[in-house]
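<goal> How does this chain fold?
<body> The protein record starts here
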Amino acid sequence: MKGVFRKFALVFLAACMMVTLAGCGTAAQQQPSEDLPQQEQPEAPDEGIISPDEPNEEEAMQMTFTVNGRELTASLADTNAAKTLYQMLGEGDITLRLRDYGGWEKVGELGFSLPTSNQQMTAQPCDFVLYQGDQFVLFYGSNSWSYTRLGRIEDVSAAELKEILGSGNVTVTLSR
């Protein structure tokens, strides 16, 4: 858990530094004098430059769940929480201990908080969400509540997912 918190803190500090440095760069720019002719600056090509932490527009954010020896592919939602989780997975895998709750979901503490954008929704089997900012919830049944959407496991049925998860506690590893 300390490693996960340390990774989150590093991502947060890096983001703060980027915002601070971006603000410093604009203050140092000088306005051109009106008497001098202005030269047009050629645009720098940015094609092909992709940040290693973020997918390009054609790629969906995806991750892998490893549960009881099975690898499941999941697509992440377009939420700040999912984007933050995706960035954190770029630093390494996250292992969660999930417990059965209510006969329709597995839930466990992340050990850190993600940004919330809760909305009333009916979660379906294979959906995974954020609850109260620091609880990871994976559905093998259905439930209506206010959650922050994180994503959905692909290419597996509700019955298959329930069988893979088994009864009781389960260890799940999230990775890119």
The first strand starts at residue 62 and ends at 67. The radius of gyration is 21 Å. DSSP finds three helices and nine strands in the chain.
